[in-house]
From TrEMBL:
Catalyzes the first step in hexosamine metabolism, converting fructose-6P into glucosamine-6P using glutamine as a nitrogen source. It comes from the Bacteria. Keywords: Aminotransferase, Cytoplasm, Glutamine amidotransferase, Repeat, Transferase. Its EC number is 2.6.1.16. Its main location: cytoplasm. Homodimer. The chain holds residues 260 to 606 of 607 of the full protein. The active site is at 343 (for fru-6p isomerization activity). This is Glutamine--fructose-6-phosphate aminotransferase [isomerizing]. The keyword Cytoplasm applies.
Length: 347
């Protein structure tokens, strides 16, 4: 809650309750296209941003992992802005991608947690996350603060290009300012999430499903579990299940479903039912309204606070991070220093 609050405080003007990013040497509302490039967890933050910026600012967004982007040498649009997201600001692939985009005439934005980093120094505009030191290798509060900054960026682009009304901006700002309190509320579910974690700690494979803004959170939940507990996990867009992954489901496979009661809820529920019908052990994350709708269809549930659609990915990240944490602690793996991982991948 604290770092999300700190990050919001630096971008929201408390008097006007509007979002104010640092001055930029170009008008972001004039961007013809946005290209977002990042690695790992930061890439998933980019996927959330694509959804926000396309939906609320009407601007087309391409998102790619830096390790592919840099070798593909893609053409870059005239009048385009390229955004690089990196907790450390030193990730080699992301830096190489930045230099490529710059050589192709893109304006360079970055979101980093370390303002002295190389990526920050080589950017035209730096938006800082206020995650504080990330002690553990796996990104956690870096991710939620990246999302917080990206939410502010999406609103700013929408306002500047005329896609987002002042009323809609006010609604989003109030949803964002609720977040620290709501995150604190979820932390009170610690014991319940620990018990769920103990139940899945023996699994060989775990699936995460989500739709819309929940899809990147499914990917991130699976990555966090892999990184710190070494359990094989995959995140899928829930609607993709029937195109292959459903063959994996049996009673030994826990399926974590991210399902705020938004306009995609019913479709997510029908995917959950398909999984449950094949014996999958469904853990369903939703708000009171969503949980009432599904009755006892899931093996287990976590009740989330009701949240505005826009802010849901930030909130739903917390239980999936907690779940991974408790599985790792239960298995006795080193949560802060997982095997084979480095805090910043500089080669
Ligand atoms: C990217 C990243 C992290 C991951 C691990 C290795 O780092 O893939 O997402 O958790 O720490 O590096 P960064 O570019 O965001 O610093």
């Amino acid at each position: 809650p604290a770092v999300i609050g700190d990050t919001l405080h630096s971008f929201i003007n408390p008097a006007t309750r509007s979002i104010k990013l640092p001055d930029m040497p170009f008008n972001i509302g004039d961007a013809t296209r946005l290209t977002i490039v990042a690695c790992g967890t930061s890439f998933y933050a980019g996927l959330v941003a694509k959804h926000w910026i396309e939906r609320y600012a009407g601007l087309g967004v391409d998102v790619d992992v830096a390790s592919e982007f840099r070798y593909r040498c893609p053409p870059m649009p005239k009048g385009g802005i390229a955004l690089f997201i990196s907790q450390s600001g030193e990730t080699a692939d992301t830096l190489a991608a930045l230099r490529y985009a710059k050589s192709k005439g893109q304006k360079i934005l970055s979101i980093v947690n370390v303002p002295e980093s190389t990526i920050a120094r080589e950017s035209d505009v730096v938006l800082q996350t206020y995650a504080g030191p990330e002690i553990g290798v796996a990104s956690t509060k870096a991710f939620t603060t990246q999302l917080t900054v990206l939410a502010c960026l999406a609103v700013t682009i929408g306002r500047e290009n005329g896609s987002l009304s002042a009323k809609d901006e006010a609604g989003i700002v109030s949803a964002l300012t609720e977040l620290p309190k709501q995150v604190a509320e979820i932390l009170h579910h610690d014991e319940e999430i620990r018990n769920l974690a103990i139940n899945i700690a023996d699994a060989r494979d775990v699936l995460y499903l989500g739709r819309g803004l929940g899809y990147p959170i499914a990917l991130e939940g699976a990555l966090k579990l892999k990184e710190i507990s070494y359990i094989h996990a995959e995140g899928y867009a829930a609607g993709e299940m029937k195109h292959g992954p459903i063959a994996l489901i049996d009673p030994l496979v826990p399926i974590i479903v991210i399902a705020p009661s938004d306009d995609l809820f019913e479709k997510t529920v029908s995917n959950m039912q398909e999984a449950a019908a094949r014996g999958g052990r469904v853990i369903f994350l939703s708000d009171a309204k969503g949980l009432e709708t599904i009755g006892d269809m899931a093996s287990a549930t976590v009740e989330m606070p009701a949240v505005a659609d826009f802010a849901s990915p930030i909130l739903y990240t917390i239980p999936v991070q907690m779940l991974a944490y408790h599985v790792a602690v239960h298995k006795g793996t080193d949560v802060d220093q997982p095997r084979n991982l480095a805090k910043s991948v500089t080669v």
